[in-house]
Amino acid sequence: LPLGRILTLQDMEDVARDVLSYKANAYYSSAADDQITHTENVRAFSRFFFHPRVLRTVSQCSPATKILGCRSSLPIFVSSAALAKLGHPLGETNITRGAGRTGVIQMVSTNASFSASEIYAARVSPTQPLFFQLYKKRDDSEAEKLVQEVEALGYNAIFLTVDAIVAGRRDRDIKAPFALEDQEREGTKQQPYVEGPQEEEGHTLGTSGALVAGNDVDMTWEKTIPWLRSVTKLPIVIKGIQCVADAVLAAETGVDGILISNHGGRQLEYSLPSIEVLYRLRIQRPDIFQRIEVYVEGGARRGTDILKALCLGATAVGMGRPFLYAQSAYGDAGVVKIIRILEQEIVYGMRLLGASSVRDLVPEMVERVDWQPE
Ligand code: FNR
């Protein structure tokens, strides 16, 4: 399909599904158990409706913002998603170039197919910001070395993932197991798959199981956050907050931000949809939004989804799968394409809402209904 015929993120996903291998499709699209949380991440956005304001000056309309002090052309970012080479030989560097050309920030996974320095080198300008997603290894000194390496390279923030101490059960991914040969062919820097702890009743935990082996399962508020603070000067964001109580704890612990996320429904099945957690935080603890930056990810596919999250107080919205699909289908041009689609949808929505900047998006503009549109 010519790129010009792609009008929505769903169109892009449809093209990608046709070009991806069975294994890549299984790894990218799968989610835990019956995929309820993943499905509801997407559907939950449709329970939020707007109260648009009219007769306002919106001819000058800017969707630009700042995320952790870094300029971003849109209130979105690329969520870390591992193994982009499964979909395209240039993998994550497609995303780096596409994001750089459009002024969007990419969060690079610990389990990327390229090293942090290779991805850093793919930036289109010396001022292009990059965030780093950390899976903390059990061994503190190994984790410290990695954090200091990315800080020395020039990465702008650390997102510590806390919702994946063990791999969620993703049936389709488990049926397409990840073998050492695949890792070598795909060029990932991961340790070879070892039979052992992640073997369960004769089944492996698929790609995700192989990737989280070796991660620290004993992270705590008391120990891990102060440890991370002591080894880096970079802003720290906790990725994988799934309830109001932990959002409050994070603010009290003194991190710079939280990313409300259930890992795209890939970890605990029946974790509440991300936008619902954001909504509860807005209702129950509006003060938190004054103290730290709050981001959300999971299921956002339209400009209106992003605008709803911004009205509820999010600084920006992350997306994972859409960028994997876009780079798989068309390389960096695909990444630029979906960012342009989102830009058009966001600016269009802002104008019709009566908002000329992201500051004009306020809680009074959105209402949660208790019925689910068909
Ligand atoms: C992920 N995600 C993820 N998160 C993380 O912290 N480190 C990682 O390496 C990965 N890897 C990864 C691979 C794939 C294939 C997917 C789909 C997701 C989770 C990711 O950062 C984010 O939470 C979700 O992708 C957001 O949901 P959507 O936008 O994909 O619905």
UniProtKB/TrEMBL annotation:
Catalysed transformations (reactions): (S)-lactate + 2 Fe(III)-[cytochrome c] = 2 Fe(II)-[cytochrome c] + pyruvate + 2 H(+)
Q: Which UniProt keywords apply?
A: Flavoprotein, FMN, Heme, Iron, Metal-binding, Mitochondrion, Oxidoreductase, Transit peptide, Transport
Enzyme Commission designation: 1.1.2.3
Q: Name one GO cellular component term.
A: mitochondrial intermembrane space
Chief localization: mitochondrion
Q: Which residues form the FMN hydroxy acid dehydrogenase domain?
A: 1-371
Places the protein is found: Mitochondrion intermembrane space
The molecule here is called L-lactate dehydrogenase (cytochrome)
